[in-house]
Amino acid sequence: MEVMSHSSSFLLPAGETSAKRYALIVLNQNIPCFTPLLWEHAKLRLCADGGANRIYDELPLFFPREDALLIRNRYKPDVIKGDMDSIRPDVLHFYLSLGTKVIDESHDQDTTDLDKCILFIRDSPLNQESSKLQILATGALGGRFDHEAGNLNVLYRYPDTRITLLSDDCLIQLLPKTHRHEIHIQPSLLGPHCGLIPIGAPSAKTTTTGLQWDLTDTEMRFGGLVSTSNLVKGEKITVKSDSDLLWTISIKKQDSNKTLRSG
Ligand SMILES: Nc1ncnc2c1ncn2[C@@H]1O[C@H](COP(=O)(O)OP(=O)(O)OP(=O)(O)O)[C@@H](O)[C@H]1O
Ligand SMILES: Cc1ncc(C[n+]2csc(CCO)c2C)c(N)n1
Asked: For 214-227, what is each residue's pLDDT tens digit?
């Protein structure tokens, strides 16, 4: 069984990052403080419908000494895609005038705006067979539970795409059962709180190393044991399971000067 390696080096301040290729999707929920950093290094920048309002309204607040218009011009999304029922008309016109590509899929009321953005990235010429884009989605957690559940569902809909859901407080990734997993932690950025959640189906056997409460061929299921409030002990965690699991780990609060330093 192949090993899938996970690292969160995208959260490292500028200058400390190794080469990595990802697309960023901004969802319609509070923008995490590290968003400018992620934006700077993204190969593609998308807003899911009302996510554009967040970029427009909240990004200038991170730079109180700079002119809001300059910030809005600097952080121009490549694409705004969705069913367009949440983006404000003034925001839509502003980004249209900057040349952002706007894709209105209001005819599709069966998939979420996050789904729509993921399909755009998967079909992009930047997403090469030899070098697939990872996807980071900010604002995926906190707020309406139906939206959160829909966001988790996209991890299961596209299990062969590396998708990380982010909020200010934590990240979530899918660990497919087809692989053994090595998760590399930067202790200055992540942890110590973590969880392994068998959300799609129960797991008869999960084995881990590197956690305070490791599992050894342990059963996990809703209604029984799920591993929440666990703690990472070191910089490397391994996970092997007979079921797809969600991995979540807390994100440490950063020095805001460091987080916003973009290049
Ligand atoms: N409160 C929230 N918590 C988590 N994710 C959210 C939240 N609100 C929006 N999102 C994410 O951002 C995307 C865009 O949000 P937006 O508000 O534009 O969606 P929407 O389709 O208009 O939602 P709805 O019509 O159900 O209110 C959603 O598809 C979802 O992935
Ligand atoms: C069974 C079922 N439940 C809910 C919806 C509604 N819905 C799901 S995704 C979406 C688009 C949101 O931007 C909407 C309106 C549906 N179609 N089918």
From this structure: 999 999 999 999 99
Kindly indicate the confidence band of residue 129, based on its pLDDT and cuts at 50, 70 and 90.
confident
Strands 218-220 and 245-251: unpaired
Token couple for 180: 């053994």
Ligand 1 pocket, residue 192 CB under 6 Å: no
Closest Cα to atom 2 of ligand 2: 110
Boundary-marking domain end, from 138, 168, 198:
168
Q: What's the whole-model pTM score?
A: 0.95
Rounded to 10 deg, the angle between the 89-98 and 51-58 helix axes is 80
- Cα of 50 from ligand 1 centre, angstroms: 7
Residue that terminates a domain, selected from 105, 133, 168: 168
Average pLDDT over residues 132-138: 97
Q: How far is the CA of 143 from the centre of ligand 2 (A)?
A: 18
Considering the domain boundaries, does residue 6 fall inside one? no
Residue 27: CB within 6 Å of ligand 1?
Answer: yes
Same structural domain for residues 34 and 100?
A: yes
